[in-house]
Amino acid sequence: MRNITRGELKNASLLQLKDICEEIREEIFSTVSTCGGHLSSNLGAVELTVALHRVFHFPHDKLIFDVGHQCYPHKLLSGRADRFHTLRQEGGISGFPKRTESEYDCYDTGHAGTAISAALGIAKARDLKEEDFHVIALVGDGSFNNGLVYEALNSIKILNSNILIILNDNGMSISSTVGGTHEILEEMKSGYSPSEDVKLFERYGLSYMGVYNGNDIKELLPVLQKAKQKLKEGSVLLHVVTKKGQGYPFCEAAPEETHGVSPQGKQKAKEYSEALGEELTALAEKNKNIVAVTAAMTDALGLRNFYNKYPERSFDVGICEEHASVLCAALAAEGMKPYYAVYSTFLQRSFDELIHDTCGQCLPVTFCIDRAGITGADGETHQGVFDLSYLSLIPNLTIGVPKNIGEFRAMLRLSADYNKPFAIRYPRCGSEGSITDIEIGKFEILHSTTSDVIVLATGERCISLAEKIRERALREDIDFTLVNARFVKPLDQELLQSRPEQYIITLEDNVLKGGFGESVANFYRNSGKQIYSFGYRDCFIPHGDAEKLSNEYGLNENDIFSCIKDIYARR
Length: 571
Hints:
Blueprint: H1 6-11, H2 14-35, E1 37-38, H3 40-44, H4 46-55, E2 62-65, H5 72-76, H6 115-128, E3 135-140, H7 147-153, H8 156-159, E4 164-169, H9 180-190, H10 195-203, E5 206-213, H11 217-230, E6 235-241, H12 249-253, E7 260-261, H13 272-286, E8 290-294, H14 304-309, E9 314-316, H15 321-333, E10 337-343, H16 344-347, H17 351-359, E11 366-370, H18 387-392, E12 398-400, H19 405-415, E13 422-425, E14 444-447, E15 453-458, H20 460-474, E16 481-484, E17 487-489, H21 493-498, E18 503-511, H22 516-523, E19 530-536, H23 546-553, H24 557-570
Helix pairs in contact: 4-11, 6-7, 13-19, 15-17, 20-24
């Protein structure tokens, strides 16, 4: 697609603007079909984004996206159309706003609920520096469930700075939007007695405008002009309705399935989430106290069938990860057996609740942590490479890392009768494997030899890597003992104490700082043994192919093999 100039957009007729919208929509569909990415959310935001670029003066004015998975039209209108084919590819443009990528991206986003706080901060800095520009926060209705949004709304009067909040209401996050806020917005869209709801927004210090068709550029242009004028008097909330997947009937009909899509022709591997749904449904049939909790990601986490079969024991609380954690803790305190399914990168938001509510009270909540380790194309905000570090420091918490889907199933079955906090972390896809009996805190020796080198690998990616390295080593008459370190906490102290090897190598799909390797090194402190730990270095990992990134940022096959080879050479 060609780069559309600001002058062309400002001078275009209404018919030409509609043509630009269709050009953008076709480019998004074509590129996402090839590269993968967020599809339906971007298709629905095309007209709104074109209208914003027509009415406001970016990058002088500032546009902050909440989450940011609807920023593709913005990227196409800000000088990046000729690079859009590199979307989410290594060295290409990101699927989220990135300040280092373009001056049009004024604030990095990737998680829900942050845009209004960020907009207020940018606006307040503008005021203090006596500058003159508009600040717009584009927020989806799914994010309006998030508590951080209300903390920000509570500060509008206190900070006394003018911002435009655009509520992009499509009734969806990744899953359908749920909860009391959703019901209020639905009433406002239907025109049913919205006066009290409008007064609520006004009490926050917002002038409410709505509800308008966000997919009708003819309707949007004068509305945005009016909102722009009202910003001279104070902050404005503009409520628009868009259709997720707009322009492509199969996307409109299946917005959840087309929220995030894989490249066409890419074979889909077995997902851990599918096993979670199967096992948890089976366990719930035997145990009436089992309940499932998600934060707006029921389908993505494999729990749709569970929710359909046990609706009374299923709780989707919307994009409210902290609330979900406390809810689980309180359910457990009253004798229920909660399973909280969540992406690794989103569980970070519940760190305090993990410490204070669940582990502080030693309550039997099981955290099913999906997308752990490097996930790839969504970049820094979605790489699940910190969980072993921030979980390992919390007392009372057991951490399991299965070697394959079969072992994951076994951990879920073990968790049903486990009466303490339990975190199971796993990648998106893997191999099935067989179900074996496991015991809390016990490793598994996968291969034993008389070599003086032992490799402790945790998780499927690392075990697969270790097995590959061992095959390579055998060709040079080098061997080592290989252990499946399936529990990062507690460590298998009995096994570690009994091993005679002098050289210990650890592999983890996690940052090195605070992770599995450090735990092993602390165990062997003052023992005289030599520890070599491999994991990810101290940095944020960008988007790209997951396996390539893993190799580049710390789990490098050649480096690990060279380490083993050097040990043999010194002996």
